[in-house]
Amino acid sequence: MFLRLVRHSFLRRKRRKAVILAAVALGTSAAAALGDIALDVGDKMSRELNSFGANLVVLPAGGGAPVVVGGEDVSALRVPSYLGADDLKNVRDNFWKNNILGFAPVFDLAGRVPPQATAAPGGGEPRAAAAPGGRTVILRGTWFEREVAGAEPPLRTGARILNPFWSVAGEWPGEAATSRDAPLEALAGSNLAAALGLRPGNPLQIWAAGREASLSITGILKSGGEEDDALLLPIEAVWSLSGPPGRIARVLSRALTTPESAVYERLGASPRDLPPEEFERWT
């Protein structure tokens, strides 16, 4: 009897029932769409922000604050401080280790490109000079893409992952160390490549730390930043040119951070009123 009443209820006044069902369907669809947007907007914003690269920089103690004397920045006069390569594992050795999405160590070395090391007419290979001089360049050693040894949970990271918007014409340099006599593989920034007439596959002679080295340009990098004027190499290659290995000037990191409002809600207090140790932990 009950089923008969329900069936007759749906069969009568079909137009009105169709309007009601359409209204319910539209309302449900709108509510579901708004719920999906509300739940997904944070993830979408995070993915968009990830494309801008690192949002945290880890510096050695005393290596970050400028030294100002009489209104002049004399930071370059102080003894440089470095992180050790063994300290890299400590980047994720904290309560928020799962929030560290990636990182890449950086070590810069000043070098010079001899004045004759420019492309020959017609796009030929650059010719090397026998003595230093010419254009000053930065040799930036970093990780391109590698697995972090002993990381838990496992993490594959490097500059290539931190900066997905970077564009490389050619190939990325290999992470494996090359033999002593083999040319070091490097990326040339787009501005530097244009000035020197470099193309993927070209060799390049440089002087760094009082010694000459041969580079093989595997690709041309377009980053939109300072890397466009630099040469990027595996960090071990730059160590081999500079002398003592294992030195790191800074670590570029990408992390999910906690907004201050979330801290306020969880602790019931303003983050600015926390003791310094607690404030550093939560920020």
Describe the protein's architecture and organization.
The chain is an alpha+beta fold and 283 residues long. 29% of the residues lie in helices and 27% in strands. A 6-stranded mixed beta barrel has the order 5-6-13-10-12-11.
Q: Which outline best applies?
A: elongated
Mean pLDDT: 78
Task: Give, in spatial order, the strands making up the sheet with the most strands.
Answer: 5-6-13-10-12-11
**Secondary-structure element pattern, one letter each:** HHEEEEEEEEHEEHEEEHEEHH
Q: What's the alpha carbon Rg, rounded to whole Å? A: 28 Å
Proportion of residues in helical segments = 25-40%
The structural class is alpha+beta
Poorly predicted segments? 117-131
Number of strands: 15
Terminal CA distance reads 66 Å
Query: What portion of the residues fall into strands of 2 or more residues?
Result: 25-35%
| Largest sheet data | 6 strands, mixed, barrel
Can you count the helices? 7
